[in-house]
Amino acid sequence: MRVRDVHHSYRRRVVLRGISIELQPGVLAGIVGENGAGKSTLLKILSGELRPDRGTVHHGGRIGYCPQEVVLNDSLTVRQHLEFFKTAFGLADLRRAEEIMETLNFAAYLDERAGVLSGGTRQKLNLTLALMHDPQVLLLDEPYQGFDWDTYQRFWELATKLRDAGRSVLTVSHLAHDAERLDELWQLREGVLDAHTGTSE
Ligand SMILES: Nc1ncnc2c1ncn2[C@@H]1O[C@H](COP(=O)(O)OP(=O)(O)OP(=O)(O)O)[C@@H](O)[C@H]1O
């Protein structure tokens, strides 16, 4: 994925002031920044959900986008969500989705309605829906929010495995405590990206 000179404002609030970034295959990268720094705005632009005021985003292959806001239908079960996305992605089966569910340890909830799931379990489903079509570029917005420690570890094992299989993985977070797990880490501040140098935000 190649991003060149992306700018974005919401009316007079300037959020991104010239973001350029290159995401190679087989890289696990992170962007950190304070609340309101513009991380979600940038991911929305990279995923194609939002059009930048200026600048370009080029990518090859499938994108997997896990937004910060969990987008689920409370009246559908986990299984129904998977079936819906299987059709939307044109998948032959749910093999990958089932593998991810096993990894994240929530296969037992297949027939529960999304509306009764805990926050962490909803996030597991959110993440599964973003990854089940085996995207080449993964854009993950605070993907582990609400995860318990064991699931948090499993999330990183999954992200590392995908990186090792040649996927590009980009996670955004307000904390830099995962720095040692990442191949590249940037800091978003005042609308621009710099190499992250500090140990925490
Ligand atoms: N749809 C919108 N309309 C107007 N302003 C917005 C909109 N979305 C975001 N903003 C503003 O843009 C700025 C950046 O927001 P964004 O959600 O991208 O930040 P963030 O770094 O992801 O924050 P957080 O860590 O809290 O999730 C904030 O000041 C926010 O209030």
From TrEMBL:
This is ABC transporter ATP-binding protein. PROSITE patterns: ABC_TRANSPORTER_2. Keywords: ATP-binding, Nucleotide-binding. Residues 1-201 form the ABC transporter domain. The keyword Repeat does not apply. It comes from the Bacteria. Pfam families: ABC_tran. One of its GO terms (molecular function) is ATP binding.
